[in-house]
Amino acid sequence: MNSKKPFWEKPLASLDAAEWEALCDGCGRCCLHKAEDADTGAYYATNVACRLLDLETARCTDYAHRKLQVPDCLQLAQGNVDEVRWLPSTCAYRLRAEGKTLFDWHYLISGDRESVHAAGQSIRGWTISEDEAGDITHHLIDREL
Ligand code: SF4
Ligand code: SF4
């Protein structure tokens, strides 16, 4: 019975590489910089995006070479989803790691890559590139990471 489920309803550990990549909702929110309080370890959200992020499409402009260009770029994998505390609660990997279903704006549910933007869940329309932002502590936002 389990095999008839679509891959986005199966356990993360059972996904192959293509399914793993396809699970991403394309929100781009994991590509925003976080400000960390050195004393408490707390993270604060900002609207400052990685310089490689396309602010219209919410896509990385050099995904294949991202680790070369941005060494601290997060690479989510089977073993680290639980450890990344700042992933947004809407992140498809976090949802599935917690046994939750995807939101109806996820393209795998809606069939439309624009749904994530239309639902206001992506970085489109309210973010700025780190190349233009200056001090990120001037860009703290009252929004979850
Ligand atoms: S937050 Fe999660 S779903 Fe959104 S772009 Fe990043 S990895 Fe993909
Ligand atoms: S290098 Fe690409 S995937 Fe990594 S944080 Fe920057 S835009 Fe996102």
Automatic annotation (TrEMBL):
Entry-linked Pfam families: CxxCxxCC
Source organism, top-level taxon: Bacteria
InterPro entries for this protein: Puta_zinc/iron-chelating_dom (IPR005358), UCP006173 (IPR008228)
Coiled-coil region: none
Assigned protein family: Belongs to the UPF0260 family.
Protein's UniProt name: UPF0260 protein NDO55_09700
